[in-house]
Specification:
Layout: H1 5-17, H2 23-30, H3 35-39, H4 41-55, H5 61-74, H6 78-89
Helix pairs in contact: 1-6, 4-5, 5-6
Amino acid sequence: MSKNFPKDVLNAINKKSGKQISSGAVKKLAGTVKPSTMQNEAQLRQLIKQVSAMANVPVSEETVQEIVSAVKKSGMNPSNMEALMKMMMNK
């Protein structure tokens, strides 16, 4: 993953949401995520809803399902995660 990728993602989220989300808030939420979170669909859905609420951006059930499917397909490999984030930033 590139060095600026996390900053680029946060900037893209802030731009799309119109709300300034601090890196500290993202780190706090990220600190609660465990590898098992990505394998448990209920926990993953909860995480998506938490991020949605943080960004004040509603997420449809269809989009939640797309994200869940993409995360499962990615296998959580860091290089796959970068591709996943790029795909979601273009939505």
